[in-house]
Each structure stands twice: as structure tokens, then as C-alpha cells.
Fold:
Amino acid sequence: MKKIYVDSDVILDLLLDREPFNDDIAEILENSLKNRIAVCVSSVTITNLNYIIGRIENRNSAAKKTSKILKLVKVENVGESTVSKSIASKFKDFEDGVQNFCAEESKHKVLITRNTKDYKESDLAIMSPREYLTRIKK
Structure:
């Protein structure tokens, strides 16, 4: 099965209904269901989004939205090697490094994020949700 890796910011766009970005991730998820493509996130993404939604909304909403997203994505594990690679990397943001190395260790080729400039140290193909959608429509 084909799979794509999606960064935390993109999933939060969907769950927090952030305009105008939420439509792109909704379309990516719809396309993945039709074409049997696994949308993957890290275990860190799940904990981050639950925490952020809980702070912005409330714990109940965070629990519901976390359960909702778990039905739509596959969770890739973050282990010691992922964390160690991020610490030793040139990534300016530790969490971006964790996301990148989680994707690499999980054999992803593409990482989708709205913060593409933060991944200039990556060996992966880094795309915004809009860029990814444009690519798959060709």
C-alpha cells in the first residue's frame, strides 16, 4: 500500500477547521480513502494535537477529535533512534527533526507540511498540501 507522511500542522488545520488550509487536508484524506493510500503521522503528532486542542477548546473535544483522526490515519512510532537523530541533526526545530526522521525511518518518500522552509535539512520530498494535491492531479 502506498503511504504519505503528514506533519502535525496539517492535521491541526483539519481538526481546528483552520481556513483556508482545512480544505486541502480534507481533500488529501478523501483521496487517500478512494485510492487506498495510507496517511501517516507520528505518535508525537497524536500527543501534540491532543494537547493543543485541549488547550484551545477542552479535554472532551480533544478526546473526540483525537479518536476521529485515529480512524483516518496510521500512526508511525517515534523511538530512541528517531529522537537521537533529531538531536544530532542540523534541524533548527527539534520537533521538525523528529517528524522528519520518523518519516525516514518509516520508509516515507514524501512529507507534507505547511512549514516547508523548516525542512530544508531533509532528504525527503517536502511539499505543502496544495503542492501535493497539484502533483497527484497530474
In short: The CA atoms of residues 50 and 63 lie 7 Å apart. The mean pLDDT is 95. Strands lie at 2-6, 37-42, 74-76, 110-112, 125-127.
